[in-house]
Amino acid sequence: PPLSEILNLHDFEAIAKHTMPEKAWAYYSSAADDEITNRENHAAFHRIWFRPRILKNVTKVDWSTTILGQKSSMPLYITATALGKLGHPDGELNLTRAAAKHGIIQMIPTLASCSFDEIMDTAAPGQVQFFQLYVNKDREITKRIVQHAEQRGIKGLFITVDAPQLGRREKDMRQKFEAEDPSEGAARAISSFIDPGLDWSDMAWFKSITKMPLILKGVQCWEDALEAYDLGLNGVVLSNHGGRQLDFARSGIEVLVEVTSKLKEMRGLSFPNEKFQLFVDGGVRRATDVMKAIALGATAVGVGRPFLYAYSAYGPEGINQALQILHDEFEMNMRLLGARNIKEVVAGMVDASNIHLH
Ligand code: FNR
Q1: Considering only CA atoms, which residue is closest to atom 18 of ligand 1?
Q2: Which of 21, 69, 283, 330 is 20 to 30 A from 306 (CA-CA)?
């Protein structure tokens, strides 16, 4: 169908499934084991309901915000997804260009298909970018990557902590990736350098080699969020890697509820918080999903697969359309919720009583 008939982010997935190269579909769509967590990620948003406010003069609504001190036209960013060229020859550059056009931030993955410098050279002057780091067993290599990223102006370092070993994504494994061991699938073939020996004591080292804000990507319970806060890190992404790692991990939006509650109880923090920012990713498909996370204390959320599907199916126009759809959804839903700006999207506007505290 023509792009003009695409009405929401789910549509891109449905089209991409039938139009993308099979190998790319297998890698992008796959998740760990029985894919229960992958399904739960979106389903968890269905357990949260709105409590809209009325008569607030919502003639003008503004859904822009700041993320780690950087301006963003929406409270969401493009999260890191590896191997961008599987779906389209321009790979991650599609995301870079669309992010510039729409004023949002792209998180560049360690395992991008395009080189880091190519992506940075494609970025518009002053365009804000984050970087996702997989920590190499060889820390000298990691140090070089981190310091190069900082020199090139990266504004936030997201250290992935949920992948000491890559999850089993059976759909992907069945595709028999040609590059290395044919039984392992695309993901495993490229990830053997990742250090399973990474631990909390490495965090001081990261602080010593860079001044970029440090965020842990893949935190899944309040205990680890508290540890990150106590170590002076700048935030955490509550994420299960799009359901691609530990199956039966909980969704990020569910974990958000216990993290804000426990960090308030134990450290007196309120959220959203400038000094220690909370992010959520996994299953975000609508502006309403984003608004639920914001109401519950997140600074912003990450979106992964929908953008891959959008550019794989329709090229650069596809991702522009995906971002335009999100802008349109924000405009309408902010009005209907009775929030004139992101600061007015508050906890009292959601009923999260179906999310259990732990
Ligand atoms: C990912 N994700 C990911 N995360 C990361 O830290 N490093 C990586 O290299 C990748 N690669 C990757 C590839 C693909 C194809 C997907 C789908 C995901 C995880 C990603 O950052 C994010 O956590 C999820 O994608 C969020 O879920 P949704 O939005 O895809 O449902």
Answers
A1: 81
A2: 69
